[in-house]
Amino acid sequence: MAAEKHCDRMGRASMSAAGGRYFLETMGCQMNRLDSELVAGQLRALGYEPAGGPDDADIVLINTCSVRQHAEDKVYSRLGELRQLKRRRADMLIGIIGCMAERDGDAILSECEHVDLLCGPNQLARVPELIQAVLAERQRPVALMENQSRKLSPAERSLALDSLEAIDLNRVIPTDGSVLQSYVRVQRGCDKFCSFCVVPFTRGPEVGRPPANIVQESQRLADAGAKEITLLGQTVNSYAYQENGRTVRFAELLARVHAVSGIERLRFVTSYPGDFTDDILEAMRDLPKVCEYLHIPAQSGSNTVLERMKRHYTAEQYVDLIERARAIVPGISLAGDFIVGFTGETDDDFEKTVALVERVRYSNTFIFKYSPRPGTAADRRLADDVPPAVKRERNMRLLDVQKRISLADRQRFIGETLEVLVEGFSKAAIKAQDAEQTRGHEVGWRRSDQLTGRTRGDEIVVFTGPASLIGRFVGVRITAATALTLHGDVVEKTEQSPLPVTP
Fold it and tell me: Are strands 59-64 and 364-369 parallel, antiparallel or unpaired?
C-alpha cells in the first residue's frame, strides 16, 4: 500500500486543525487503551476537546483490534453507523487506527469511502500530521508499517523506534485525577509467532524500551497523582534491554520502577509462560509495591493443541510454573486466557483444558472461541475444523466451570478486611446519578453513593461511601461475594488527600 493516497473530495479548510472536538473509541487490549490515551493527549495538544459521542465530534477515531473476528466485525458495524452520520455532516473526519488498520487497511479503504485516514499502531506519532493532511491538503493519508519493520535498514528502523519512543515519553498527562491507575509500556511487538496470533504482524518485532525512559515516565505519572502503575508488554516478562554492555531483564526493571516515589502499587501484564523465570516471582515476593497478581495465559490444557498453537511449552511445564508461583508468592491471585475450538481440538483435548482450569483454580479467566486470523500460520496451514456449535458449547461449559471456581475463590474473603484503592463510582451509581438528575429519585436498588475499587489481587470491590474516598486506599470488610465482585463496608480510611472527582 502506498504511503499516501489522494482523493477527489472537497477539502475541509473551514475546520481549523487547532480546535474542535474529538471522539476516540477504543476496542481491544490494555495496549490499545494506552495507545488511545497517548493519541488523546496529542489531540488535546492540538487544541481539541473530548466530545460526548460521535454526533458531537469533528474528529472520530476508532482504535481497533484484530485479535478476533468479533472485534473486527464490531469495527465494520461501527463504520456503517458512521457512514450514515457523515452523510449528514460531510465535514466530519473519520479515522481508523490500531491493529485492524495495519492488517486490513486495503479493504477498509476500498469498502469505506467515508474513512479519511488510516494509522497503524507503530505510526501513532504521525496522527497530528495525518489529520492536517486531511483538513488542509485534501489527502486521504495512510501510515502503516505493513510488517516492513523486518525489512527496514538499521537507520530507518532506529528512526521509526525513536518516533514511537517519543509518543510514550512525551505523553500529555491529564491533571484531572484520571491517572490514578496508569499504564506504562515497557516493550513493543512480539517475536513468539504463536500460530493463531496476528500481533507480530500488526505490531512488529519485540523491542524493549530503555529502562531510564520507563522510570522517567512512571515518575511523571506519580507526580500527577498515579498510585498504581501497570507495566505493559505483549510478553512482558520477556523484557530485555542492552544498557552499558549488560542486559537489563524484567525482574531488575520491576525493582527500578518500584523505587519511584509516589507509586504504591505495581502490576504487569501480560506474561508468557515459556519465558517466565523465578527471579520475577522472587521480585514479586520481595518488593512490597508489586501486587500478588499474575496474568499468565495457558490457552489450552492439551499438549497436542499447544504444539499446534506453537506455544513452546507443555501443560506440565505450565502447571509446574503455577506451583512455583504459589510457593514463592504467598496468596498470589492468578488469571489466565484460553482458546476453545482451536483447529483439531478433540473432545479429549478440551477435557484436558477443563482439568487444567480445575487444577489451577484461577481467580479469573478470559475464554474465547477460536476464529482464524488471516495471515497467521494457523490460517494458512490448518483447517478450522471445529464446528461453531461445538465451539459455543465448549465456551459455555468452560465459562460455567470458571464461574463456579471464581465464586468459591471470592467467598473465602467474606469476613476479611482488604485494602482497596478506590477508583470511582460504580456503574450502578453512575446510572442512579443520571436518573436522579433526570427524574429526581433513585431507580430501584441502585445507590448513587456506591463506590468501586480493586484489591492488590485485582478483585473488584463494591461498597458505599462518600466521593471524598476516591483516590484513597481504604479498608473494606467483605460481607458478600459473587463470581465477579466482592461487596463490603468501609472500616477505615487513610488521611491521603482525595484526587479531583468528576462523578
Answer: unpaired
- Grid cell locating 301: 490444557
CB-CB neighbours of 88 under 10 Å: 8
* CA dihedral over 393, 396, 400, 405, signed as positive or negative: positive
- Please state, in angstroms and rounded to a whole number, the distance separating the CA atoms of residues 344 and 370: 11
Count Cβ atoms within 10 A of the Cβ of residue 286 and give its class: 0-12 exposed, 13-18 middle, 19 or more buried.
middle
- Residue among 238, 290, 242, 298 at smallest CA distance from 268: 290
Q: Among all chains, which residue has been given the C-alpha cell 489529520?
A: 131
Q: In what order do the strands lie in the sheet with 265-269?
A: 181-185, 228-232, 265-269
Label residue 215 left, alpha or beta by phi (over 0 means left) and psi (-120 to 50 means alpha): alpha
E-assigned strands of 341-472?
364-369, 417-425, 450-454, 460-464
Model-level pTM? 0.87
Give the number of other CB atoms < 10 A from CB of residue 279: 14
Which of 117, 125, 91, 83 has the alpha carbon at shortest distance from 16? Answer: 91
Asked whether the beta carbons of 59 and 95 are under 8 A apart, the reply is: yes
- Please give the angle made by the CA atoms of 35, 139 and 49, to the nearest 5 degrees: 45
Per-residue pLDDT of the chain (503 residues; tens, 9 = 90+): 333 333 333 334 334 445 699 999 999 899 999 999 999 999 999 999 999 999 999 999 999 999 889 899 999 999 999 999 999 999 999 999 999 999 999 899 999 999 999 999 988 989 999 999 998 877 789 988 754 444 555 665 555 556 668 888 888 898 887 899 999 999 999 999 999 999 999 998 999 999 999 999 999 999 999 999 999 999 999 999 999 999 999 999 999 999 999 999 999 999 999 999 999 999 999 999 999 999 999 999 999 999 999 999 999 999 999 999 999 999 999 999 999 999 999 999 999 999 999 999 999 999 999 999 999 999 999 999 999 999 999 999 999 999 999 999 999 999 999 999 999 998 765 555 555 554 544 444 456 689 999 999 999 999 999 999 999 999 999 999 999 999 999 996 544 444 443 33
CA angle 295, 299, 305 (to 5 degrees): 155
Which has the closest alpha carbon to 199: 168, 165, 167, 234? 234
Residue in 365, 235, 232 with CA at minimum distance from that of residue 300: 365
Q: Transcribe 264-310 into DSSP letters.
A: -EEEEE---GGG--HHHHHHHHH-TTB-SEEE---B-S-HHHHHHHT
